[in-house]
């Protein structure tokens, strides 16, 4: 029957055009170039801004948007960009620069681990809320305040969002390690500003040590000395702000300099604050007013006359940087304190290396799989490669359209998708090969191949999707990004394998361009008695699992990375490699006897970093000590990761919960599609693969120091999807042979099904293995951990489909044919006979 392919062709073309438009241009344009091009009025200010931005770019190319932000400074951009509507914006310059940045930004958004930057998770202290405050409104207020503080650092597209009931996640891409400490301190400051009156007889009372009711004794640093110290004055200050005058009435604050060049903070009140301030100064002429910031007196000027303008200055013993930071938080005060419970910093230069290694791994992995398919399946392999390229375009297009941020694990998800996308094509081609072996016509073999492979492809993709969707909803951070990439990739591979490749074959056949479909065939009709070795194999691998897990338990907390145990990890780069024991000695002197110190590199040898893991809250002093002690070795801090113990415990719980949920849904699906015994066999095989992988990972800890982390969780959940995928293909063939009434015992039928699917199993596992090897060799960092874990999973998943899942089903039924099978065909029909007479499956 001739198929109408015009509609399918139009559908594929429309999807490809849409996906390409969503992903183009993929990379960022130079924001300064876009700024210069977009300007509508090139005056002298504009020329000076561009020239300054170019100078900053030459000195700090990694800062990108921040260079332009700093160059703009206090200049008003509205005359230069009159067409950009900023009428409702509190900060017109910021609105204009954001518009320019959006125009310069590429469609593929890169995560912190790829472009560098700073990420924080802060916990809002809701216990400090007033009784009348609403939790959500406090969170929203804190989020807006933090957003304004972040804007001061000139970050292009900061991400600030509420996570959970009392947490806010802040991501600042492109920010360097040098700005890390400044951001951290700025985010945490409550900046509670109060204006309190000083007792008229403060000097005498303070000297005599007398405290008047309603007052408290505070110290004020009068002046800074050359050595960093200073003299102090004791002041008797009212406990409460005068007339409730606090920082909530401040609408503007900025750092200025006195005539002598000393930094001070100029502030302005809003209308209501100016009114209160004027009343206070009117009633307290010739008295001193203490300006108290976070419980510390910053200055205590004398009120010489009423101040009705609603503005003032704060002078004190701080430098320009401190004055800038204070002005920032004064302008945006928090109602309640916030505490940083986890943070992650990646220097932009390290991010650039990560991009290069990730892209290199992706390209090599894709090429390796494509070359194999072209060589093994010849013309059919080229068709599969076209589908593979289409798959990648659709994957990137969908990711860009939904605003998914691409991370290192996301790149791993794309490469894995490449390997797994081949599976659907392999299933189809192996079915076509079988049909051709039955002397069917080429058109009939292709038709039957697609029809017979459909059910298996659908089941295997759905079970993989179960794991990837669980990653999205229950995963954390970059694991979620991996789940998104894998989910979109698996769905795209289903479309390309069943629609795109079929469309190409129909086009070729419709024009009689080929009369045969040659393919290599290394694995011919085998008759291996797999079930003969089931019991010894079953016992051996479970013993290996016990050994591996036992070793891991003996290692204790040494197995847990900061993602699970909490702690601080600092990443360094060195121009001259130092001995680990020298570094350990320096860290031990700081009291960190259990520090984890290791070099980590990809096998290509192009990237090597030093990772130092210590207890939570100690990373800064460790970093300072190593930068000092090993300065001659060209040491440089390239990234930090800080995870509190509470967050680590939550990641552990979410990892276990995600695994259990994934297994439960797989059990339900397989039981629905097959029989309960098949579902039990599949789930036990998956549990076996997970435990075997964890056991091997534990043994690797003793050799390479690998630790459990969030990326490893993503790999384990991916193994669940891969393992069940392979098992489903074998179970589907067993079910098919049973339904067709193939003669023989259940053991014979099972051995026959295993031999029939052996070629597909080896090819699919081999292509995924090739793609993952590329990640392992060229990926580095988190990708390397993922790849190592998944390589083990590929081997165990292929093995368990035969000797765990299939064997358990055989033993469950005690060797008897299950109810799913029909009575053997009378007259001794063979598998080949019944296959020819059986209707095509949908």
Task: Offer a quick outline of the entry.
57% of the residues lie in helices and 14% in strands. By secondary structure, it is of the alpha+beta class.
Task: Indicate the radius of gyration in whole angstroms.
Answer: 33 Å
Q: Main beta sheet, described?
A: 8 strands, antiparallel
Q: Strand tally, please? A: 18
> Strand arrangement, largest sheet?
3-4-2-13-18-15-17-16
Query: How many angstroms separate the termini?
Result: 17 Å
Percent range of helical residues: 55-70%
What portion of the residues fall into strands of 2 or more residues? 5-15%
Query: Which structural class is indicated by helix and strand composition?
Result: alpha+beta
- Stretches where pLDDT is under 50 for at least 5 consecutive residues are 821-842
Bulk shape: elongated
If helices are DSSP runs of H or I spanning 4 or more residues, what is the number of helices?
27
Mean pLDDT across every amino acid position: 80
Q: What secondary-structure arrangement, pairings included, does this model have?
A:
Elements: H1 6-23, H2 31-38, H3 44-59, H4 65-72, H5 92-104, E1 109-110, H6 112-115, E2 117-124, H7 135-151, E3 159-163, E4 167-173, H8 180-188, E5 193-197, H9 202-208, E6 215-224, E7 230-238, E8 250-257, E9 263-269, H10 271-283, E10 289-293, E11 296-299, E12 311-315, H11 320-331, E13 338-346, H12 348-377, H13 379-401, E14 405-406, H14 408-437, H15 442-474, H16 478-510, H17 534-555, H18 562-565, E15 567-573, H19 580-588, E16 596-601, E17 608-614, H20 619-629, E18 636-643, H21 645-673, H22 676-704, H23 710-739, H24 746-756, H25 758-778, H26 781-812, H27 831-837
Parallel strand pairs: 1-14
Antiparallel strand pairs: 2-4, 2-13, 3-4, 5-10, 6-7, 8-9, 9-12, 10-11, 13-18, 15-17, 15-18, 16-17
Helix pairs in contact: 1-13, 2-5, 3-4, 12-13, 12-14, 12-25, 13-14, 13-16, 14-15, 14-16, 14-25, 14-26, 15-16, 15-21, 15-23, 16-23, 17-22, 17-26, 21-22, 21-23, 22-23, 22-26, 23-24, 23-26, 25-26
